[in-house]
Amino acid sequence: MRAAMLLPLAALAGCHFALPSVFDAAAPGGDAVDLAVDPPDLFRIPDGAVPRGIGFPCGAAGDCDSGACVDGYCCDSLCNPADPANLCKACNVPGSEGHCVAAQAGTDPHDQCDSDAVGTCGHDGLCDGKGGCERFAAGTVCGSATCGGSTITYAPACDGNGNCVSPPSSSCAPYTCGSPTACATSCTPPANGCAAPAVCNNGSCGKRALGQPCSSPSDCGSGFCAPQGVCCNSACTGSCMSCNVPGKLGQCSPLAPGTQCAPAGCAGDAKVSARSCDGAGACQPAVTTDCTPYTCNTGTAQCYARPCADSTQCAAGHTCNNGSNKCQ
What we know:
The protein is mostly beta strands. Helices cover 0% and strands 18% of the residues.
């Protein structure tokens, strides 16, 4: 007799629950349900994991001493997504294979998080890395800019707390609106595109206001054309500062926390994490992880892992054992 230990689905605000693609547990005395497994190259064998043990790749509950094959690994629990306590948890999180832990941010392994319309600034359909469903990040554009006469209101942005916030209106002066959503940046004689008392001279009304497009500092009344191509209140340099942050166009502002400011990479036999902004204008330090006895894969910026293909995947002084397929 075949049996699957699955509970009725439950619902939480902003989230729903569904069975994962690889979720299998045999009831006591029952036969394992044979499920299809994702391509084998997606499954690494953590060092120390043994066949049928926690963290070893599997295709069905019968492959595991724990009786639970979840997300392609023998798991220490069912990690049942029908249980609200297991919201945004998984058993295939790198470094924690075989353990029911919080899924990585930006993923939704068990399809538990609903996706709201971006204009609501609600949930974006992904996990937050802390066992919950994340909201649209601060700075996510949630509407359109509007322009009338010589007054523009730049596009509103999410505040990270579920609110769509519009910035104060700004003047296009010395230009008028060039479209329903943007200021003009040029004019046609005698005065088209210019806000009084400015007049059109050689296709220009004069220096542009903060937030307007620019190609050089001489385009801007402030004397600053930020690297992002808009007139700014300062030079606005630095990898975590920008003058075109939604909701703050023209004002040099910190990028949202979590914005990547440097890519991941390798340093010898160590992997170096991507760096992200701290929300206050600084690029946070990278985390360096020694891959030994393996080395770092420069193509993926991740540590090689068992099974090793050859000794080029091993750290200096180590070789790939053809029997165990481990770097030793």
